[in-house]
Amino acid sequence: MQQGKFKRSLSVADLTLIGLGAIFGSGWLFAASHVASIAGPAGILSWLIGGVAVLLLGLIYCELGAALPRAGGIIRYPTFSHGPLLGYLMGLITLIAFSSLIAIEVVAARQYAAAWFPWMNKPGSGDASLAGWIVQFLLLCLFFLLNYFSIRTFALANNIVSAFKFVVPMLVIGVLALHFQPANLSDHGFAPFGMAGVGAAVSGGGIIFAYLGLTPIISVASEVRNPQRTIPIALLLSVVLSTLIYVLLQVVFLGSVPASALTQGWGPVGGEYSLPYRDIALALGAGWLAVLVVSDAIVSPSGTGNIYMNATPRVIYGWARTGTFFRLFTRVGVSSGIPRPALWLTFALSVFWTLPFPSWEAMINVVSAALMMSYAVAPVTAAALRRSAPALDRPFRVKALDVLGPLAFVVASLIVYWSGWSTVSWLLGLQVLLYLIYLACARLMPAGRLPLRAQIHSSLWLIGFYLMMIGVSYLGSFGGRGLLVHPWDATAVAVVALLAYCWGAATGLSATQLDLGAEDDQ
Description:
The structure is a single chain. By secondary structure, this protein is mostly helical. The protein has a single domain (12-257, 269-421), classed as Amino acid/polyamine transporter I. 68% of the residues lie in helices and 0% in strands. The chain has 21 helices and no strands.
């Protein structure tokens, strides 16, 4: 079979809209009321923390993406810096997160559409009925077809959807600002649930999930015109603009909640305004805005699901290129430039995650933690490559990486910790189990690979980090035993993260072991 190549056809505008389109999916539609119920008005700080965290990671991805514009880069960068064993661990968790994200977005579109078509939900529940699941399946089929033929087909569809999906948030901000009540920001205290509530809102309120739209930009790096310039611009624009809009949306939501809804505090707000902007528009008598919100709530998540249907095959392709996944998935169509075997697998997984008809809220916490774990390795990768490949051309070079790298890793680790013991224990525990499975099957791996001893040496830091994080989470106050309370639990996470960062940066591959990958996918 003749092997095709990716086609460089995406511009700065295309790439920025991919980033913003991935960020503005279901997160903005659901998160405001969840954040308010967890953190109260202090949820504004939660959005700023999430924005800073993603901006720090985005800066580091700017350096990696501009220096090494590879398809599925989020998987391939750890492989370049620390070997295939680390790439294998990152590959599986990223595949789970990305493919389930597609499912989450169609679930969100269906939940909002049920405001008009109640038969899509089970009675008294946000879960899908059989008819609702069929609607979700048809949406997934549409995403698959839009991505099957060419990258330009996908980009054109995304640009059209994006033009509509940003108008409605701007209208929401404008209308709710007219009903703003400053007293709401101090009612029951600015931070009624303390700093623990601020942290919990970042992970469990949907904030970090709402921000995680950077990796689709990196995943299509091989299809970007002038990637050394385009990728950093698109990444930074996406993060800064989304942070500004999200903070404004949270502020106007908090200020426009009717005083009568706050008699019992902010806790019940998440239940009373489960579809926050639609519900509050109806409460304020702006029925026309509620109609627009529901319309956008169908379009926005669908647009984001389409983006991740495009990005996930590139992640699978990148994983296959590391040699720790089936080589079948490195095939790219000659005429289309699309990795179609990987696209078929993506479609199958996205359908699987919609079973047995879960709600948006049921899926969000685990996916947020999984995505943040895959993001968090980037600072360690960048630091290790600075040491082993100092001569690598870096068109975008992060200043003060010795400060920003550890800071980004600490913040990312805190976000994972805030997702709670039930998530941390099984998610990180699964990674440790997969590590042991890899070691047990190492003899079955193809010959000519990096020696297993070197792979273990370069990846052991991550397992050490996972085990220490499991220990802190067990002792901590986010679903654990409560023996470590704030701020000692956050301090312990920071210490663990700094130790792991230094360990990982120092044990990357040496210059003689380094293989930055062939450019035949470009």
